[in-house]
């Protein structure tokens, strides 16, 4: 029985490590939801200048964070019940989430390519509609006020479009006729930096989570293997005990042989 005892100790250690990993997954779920929601809010402030595809990784990040809660619950239930099926399902779900996270990280990184040109095209399209669209007017004034910038590259962008320079282009909004208060820098570089940094944060975050999930998959496979070994050993021991009991009973209860009794006529 020492082999079975060693397996029990090993399984308990793996089970506790899996519980720790699941606790980390719950914290990671909160982190992913927080990161994804924050980035969506930041992007939402500048959605006029951005394409919808930039929102997809952040939305996927939130969805993954929510799914991780349920997967962590499945892992805990599987570990408590010592169910090979549940633990294997848990490991498989983690693997699928791992694929999604790597896809999100790759998509986020690839979006950084040609980011400046994409934002510039959208900003040029939006600035043409400044006087015709309240949404574009609000977006430009919000961006220029909060990023402390003016136009795409500088204030000449407004002049070249024959549009009066907005009051948000001035350090003193009540002094919008005094060139000395005019903000010199454009908004393109600042917006590119914000979007790029958010994408970097999202990509690095999902990669870190992926490495931790690999540990979760490893522990789940170890636990499933330990459970199978324990159950196999228990079946072997049970069969050996059954054979031992039967042998003991057979030794103490030999079969009785009934000898034929001769008939009286033959006597």
TrEMBL record:
A matching Pfam family: Tetraspanin
Topology versus the membrane: Multi-pass membrane protein
Highest rank taxon of the organism: Eukaryota
SUPFAM superfamilies: Tetraspanin
Family the UniProt entry places it in: Belongs to the tetraspanin (TM4SF) family.
GO cellular component: plasma membrane
Subcellular location, record wording: Membrane
UniProt entry tagged with the keyword Transmembrane: yes
Chief location bin: membrane
Disulfide bridge partners, by residue number: 149-187, 150-169
PROSITE patterns xref list: TM4_1 (PS00421)
Key word Metal-binding present: no
Protein name: Tetraspanin
InterPro entries named in the record: Tetraspanin/Peripherin (IPR018499), Tetraspanin_animals (IPR000301), Tetraspanin_CS (IPR018503), Tetraspanin_EC2_sf (IPR008952)
Segments crossing the lipid bilayer: 16-43, 55-80, 87-109, 199-224
Organism: Brassicogethes aeneus (Rape pollen beetle)
Assigned keywords, A-Z: Disulfide bond, Membrane, Transmembrane, Transmembrane helix
């Amino acid at each position: 029985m020492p082999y079975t005892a060693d397996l029990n100790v090993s399984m308990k250690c793996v089970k506790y490590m899996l519980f720790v990993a699941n606790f980390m997954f719950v914290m990671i779920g909160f982190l992913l939801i927080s990161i994804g929601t924050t980035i969506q809010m930041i992007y939402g402030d500048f959605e006029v200048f951005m394409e919808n595809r930039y929102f997809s990784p952040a939305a996927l990040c939130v969805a993954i964070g929510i799914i991780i809660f349920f997967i962590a619950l499945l892992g805990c239930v599987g570990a408590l019940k010592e169910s090979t099926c549940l633990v294997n399902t848990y490991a498989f779900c983690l693997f699928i989430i791992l694929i999604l996270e790597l896809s999100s990280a790759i998509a986020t990184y690839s979006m950084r390519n040609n980011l400046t040109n994409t934002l510039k095209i959208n900003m040029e399209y939006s600035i043409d509609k400044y006087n015709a669209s309240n949404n574009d007017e609000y977006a430009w004034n919000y961006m220029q006020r909060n990023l402390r910038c003016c136009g795409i590259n500088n204030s000449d962008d407004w002049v070249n479009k024959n549009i009066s320079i907005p009051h948000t282009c001035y350090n003193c909004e009540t002094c919008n006729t005094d060139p000395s208060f005019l903000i010199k820098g454009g908004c393109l570089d600042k917006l590119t930096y914000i979007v790029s940094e958010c994408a970097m944060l999202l990509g690095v975050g999902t990669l870190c989570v992926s490495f931790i999930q690999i540990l979760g998959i490893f522990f789940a496979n170890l636990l499933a293997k330990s459970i199978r070994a324990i159950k196999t050993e228990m079946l072997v021991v049970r069969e050996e005990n059954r054979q031992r009991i039967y042998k003991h009973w057979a030794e103490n209860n030999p079969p009785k042989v009934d000898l034929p009794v001769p008939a009286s006529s033959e006597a």
